[in-house]
Write a structure and sequence with these properties.
single chain, mainly alpha, 17 helices, globular
Length: 404
């Protein structure tokens, strides 16, 4: 009865507000990943093509930027919304948490797997899985049991359209344990110190897991659970901090003090992000040396996550409307999950189309890939993911809300 009431109250409760700065970070993150995959796919599909210099701009850094930011954003938002939904992390009901998570993640994921299965069975190039790497049933089982990152690291690369699924394995394995840890630890007397110690432990172990002594397999060092859960845990820690600080009603403080605090958090956060993955055109020799110093012990990822969390903390404690020129990025950020899962189909489709028509500069096609990826993500969210999400959670559909 308690669980049923929690589900019903969740479907009718006021959702936590959207924060423009977080949507901006999500938009930048997913576009970083899209850009990485565009720049890596172009030479594969089009031989002997002279690309504009800007197409090669820091694609590795941007791709890594996107994935690391996504993990930090995910941990922050899941923690903050769980506190908002249940009242506290100690009150989290695992079954309700899983149902909400399933409703959000499963519909577009299962749609993607169905499409990939059809393309693989129909032998549509370049989508079939290499038989020396895996079989389709084994790949599907790995995705659905959150071990696709291990399968790919141990047996080799899958077709590009399968690529984004490794991050879901890391993320969902974390969230498989998260509500159980909340319910079993936080309800005890010394639960919060133990809970914080576990999250801090993930943050501390992350850089070690990315080092070569952790494994001789470089792909597993980059894609393993422990080497990526540090930023999720860091986001969770800052989500707890944000929830605690919100209790002090900072909106009642003097306006000048709020603006100063917001400016300080966001400037420091952005500086840390630039320090970790600063783009080449603003990289000085001194900054480059600092980045290399961070890269050697593999803590650059955590510095990036820390900067991301500080920016998010400021946006939650002192919410403000985003600038009008960031609206397109914020719009993409709202549909970042759908864009992330579907963008490889857009890239491959437009590259195959370019190979046939051979018209217009390749740089224009790259811009089209970004724009079409955003539109496709929006359409999937608007007409499939969000309706299914609301249906599975028992919430009224938008059309039903309009008639009541």
């Amino acid at each position: 009865m308690y669980i049923r009431l929690m589900v019903e109250s969740d479907s009718q409760s006021k959702p936590i507000q959207r924060f423009d700065t977080i949507d901006l970070l999500r938009g930048l993150s997913v576009l970083g990943v899209v850009y990485l995959h565009i720049t890596t796919a172009l030479p594969v599909f089009i031989a002997d093509q002279e690309f504009p210099a800007w197409l090669h701009f820091q694609y590795g850094e941007l791709g890594g930027f996107g994935v690391s930011c996504f993990f930090a954003i995910s941990g922050f938002l899941i923690t903050l919304t769980s506190i908002h939904r249940f009242g506290s992390l100690a009150a989290v009901v695992p079954s309700v948490f899983y149902r909400i998570r399933f409703a959000r993640i499963a519909p577009p994921l299962l749609l993607l797997l169905c499409i990939l299965s059809v393309l693989d069975l129909a032998k549509v190039v370049p989508f079939p899985i290499d038989p020396s790497v895996s079989t389709l049933p084994r790949a599907l089982f790995a995705v659905l049991t959150f071990q696709f990152n291990y399968l790919q690291a141990m047996h080799g690369w899958f077709p590009a359209s399968w690529g984004p699924l490794w991050t879901l394995s890391v993320e969902e394995m974390f969230y498989l344990c998260f509500p159980i840890l909340c319910a079993s630890v936080l309800r005890r007397r010394w639960g919060m110190p133990v809970f914080l110690a576990v999250l801090t432990g993930f943050v501390a172990v992350g850089p070690l897991a990315r080092r070569s002594f952790f494994t001789s397999n470089p792909m597993w060092a980059e894609h393993s659970y422990l080497s990526n859960m540090d930023n999720i845990a860091l986001g969770c820690l800052f989500g707890i901090i944000a929830a605690r600080l919100l209790e002090y009603r900072l909106d009642r403080r003097p306006a000048w003090l709020r603006y100063l605090a917001l400016l300080t958090l966001q400037i420091v956060g952005v500086m840390l992000m630039v320090l970790a993955r600063g783009p080449a055109f603003i990289r000085s020799q001194h900054l480059f040396r600092i980045q290399m110093t961070l890269w050697k012990p593999s803590i650059d990822t955590d510095v990036l996550g820390l900067g991301t969390c500080l920016v998010m903390l400021g946006s939650v404690l002192f919410p403000s409307r985003g600038w009008i020129f960031t609206a397109p990025l914020r719009w993409v950020g709202r549909y970042s999950y759908e864009v992330y899962l579907s963008h490889e189909f857009v890239i491959i489709g437009l590259l195959l189309l370019y190979a046939k028509v051979q018209k217009w500069p390749i740089s224009l096609w790259a811009v089209a890939m970004v724009l079409v990826s955003g539109v496709v993500g929006y359409l999937i969210s608007r007409y499939f993911s969000e309706p299914m999400n609301r249906l599975l959670r028992g919430a009224p559909l938008p059309s039903q809300l309009m008639t009541t």
